[in-house]
Amino acid sequence: MNDKRTSVKHLTWRAILLVIPGAVLITASSSYIALRASALPWPTIFVTVLAMIVMRMFGRRDVNEIHVAATGIDAGAMVAGGLVFTIPGLFITGIWKVDRSGGQTAGDFIKQHLPTVMMIAFAGVLIGTTLCWLFRKRNIEQMDLPYPIGKAAAATLSAGESGGMRALVLFGFLAIAAVITLLRDKFQLIPPLVAFSVAGIPLSLQLSPMALGIGTLIGFSSTAYWLAGAAITTFGRFILLRMASSNGWEGVDASFSGWNLTTAIALMVGAGAGTLITFVVSSLRKDHSKPVGKGKKKRGTTKATLGTSGKGITFLSLGLVAIAFVLSIVIGLKVLPAILLMGGVFFASMMSSIITGQTGINPMELFGIIVLLAIRVVVNVNSTHAFFIAAIVAVACGYAGDMMNDYKAGAILKTNPTAQYLIELIGGLFGAMTASIAILAIIYSAGGIGAEAGLPAAQAHSVAAMVQGIGDPAFFIIGAVAGCLLTLLKVPAMIIGIGMMLAGYGLAIPIFIGGLFEFVTRKTMTQDGQRSIQMGAAGLLGGEGLTGTILAIIGLFV
Question: Which of 101, 171, 273, 539 has a CA 20 to 30 Å removed from the CA of 43?
Fold first, then answer.
């Protein structure tokens, strides 16, 4: 596909053949990570290095061909994120159930739910691919949004230093994480959680290489706020229970759990509102300060960087949107909600792509909640269909953030965007199939969703709470206002909210240790050493994620 007879440069059969198994592996790993950690760090850098290593093993050194392959490999990761952050809500609310004790086999469970989940994933992928192509020119060529993850991927490829010691570090730590995961989850020689207390305050520590990797990748500042959120919940419960014991109050623990969940969700919703306000204000300021001639100059350079036929992609995109609309009808939505969903996905994906470009953060499930609540104002939607709507929006928004990062790196490297569009579609479709199977396999293997199953799925709890109601209105209003104000003050209220929701899962401490390690190495090591540390952290993430998913799938047949 890269010869002179075709206009799609940089798209080769080698890249396609690498993308298919690569997308399957990365999507399966991302499904496990998102379910276990209630977080999904961008896999872009890990995938970029992986694609570079594999391509060079076959003697390929063209950064554009490598980047096209990486674009397709990581396409399914955020599809997995969009599904994990919404679909488990169906199990949390009891709409869908895992009933292994009642004789439900893995085959029965998969047969019952897989077609619906897969159609949801396909709908999100198809409309997400279309909207990313639509937003690419404005966000990257005209607005010139930074997209920090995309810039980092481009820098990694440009440096071309992934061979030798760096490859050894990545795969070495991947192997270490795989061995620890096997000893913990398969042979049960390592406990998954260690409980202890400090000054009478009960704490827990999850023995997870993945948590250390996450902390190292997201950095010290974010892990500190995560720990702060967990501390608010832990100390708040401790103090309230002490007061209840002294005064003979009853039912305090259950009430506190409800208040905490409502406040944490409200913090994240308020953070989303604050992010939108920040974006609108900054956009208005840029529009007023932007010279008239600057936009014209960028438009004059667009065709030189495209090197592609826009009409063919436009017709294909219209067809993809039509298929996504039909899929939304097939899963049970009526015509009016499906039409409103298409409009809601457009605006949600636009905001998601811009916020990701500005901040590097993509709160995909919050956009699902916003579109869901907006649709419910116009038309009545039952709880099951409400989750379907939120899932399609979340997949499309996650896809938008991921693909726009790839387009940003492609713009820097002068990669053909049509090649990226087509390879992203291929990787996304294989990723949608993989994510649908992996998520259901992991949930069935664990016996459901929740702390006792080891699958907290915090974001899905947020969606479930919004589907059922907002909880205590006073706590919700206070939390939403606080989240909005903190975000306007550049304090990541969303991370604090996640820390509050996951306080009992033992993730905050190992994630903070990873962040502290990142801080120390950033201050003491050279840039080359720091990059090796990042590769090691990515290996920890990938090792536990891949091993955990493989164990879950094997468990279906054993």
Answer: 273
Number of domains into which the chain is organized: 1
For residue 490, tell me if it sits in a domain. Answer: yes
Sign of CA dihedral 205, 545, 218, 273: negative
Q: How far apart are CA 358 and CA 503, in angstroms?
A: 29
Do the Cβ atoms of 135 and 127 come closer than 8 Å? Answer: no
Q: What is the DSSP string of 49-98?
A: HHHHHHHHHTT---HHHHHHHHHHHTHHHHHHHHHHTTTHHHHHTTSS--
- CB-based contact 77:40 (threshold 8 Å): yes
Task: Report the distance separating Cα 544 and Cα 557, nearest Å.
Answer: 21
Residue in the structure block whose two tokens are 């792509």: 353
CB contact at 8 A, 86 and 365: yes
Q: Is 309 exposed, middle or buried (0-12, 13-18, 19+ CB in 10 A)?
A: exposed
pTM of the prediction?
0.75
Cβ-based neighbours of 195, under 8 Å, separated by 6 or more = 202, 203, 204, 205
Angle at which helices 44-57 and 13-37 pack, to 10 degrees? 150
Note down the domain range covering 534: 13-290+315-557
Q: How many residues appear in the chain? A: 558
Q: Are the beta carbons of 497 and 262 closer than 8 angstroms?
A: no
Task: Give 68-122 pLDDT, tens digit per residue.
Answer: 999 999 888 889 999 999 999 999 888 998 887 777 788 889 899 999 999 999 9
* 190 phi, psi to nearest 5 deg: -125, 130
Does residue 336 lie within any of the structural domains? yes
Residue 246 belongs to some domain of the structure: yes
- CA-angle at 332, arms to 327 and 318, nearest 5°: 25
pLDDT, tens digit, for every residue of 298-324? 433 334 333 444 667 778 888 999 999
Q: Distance from CA of residue 99 to its chain's centroid?
A: 28
* Sign of the torsion formed by the C-alpha atoms of 47, 48, 50 and 51: positive
Q: What token pair was written down for 552? A: 């879950």
452: in domain: yes
Secondary structure E strands in 428-487: none
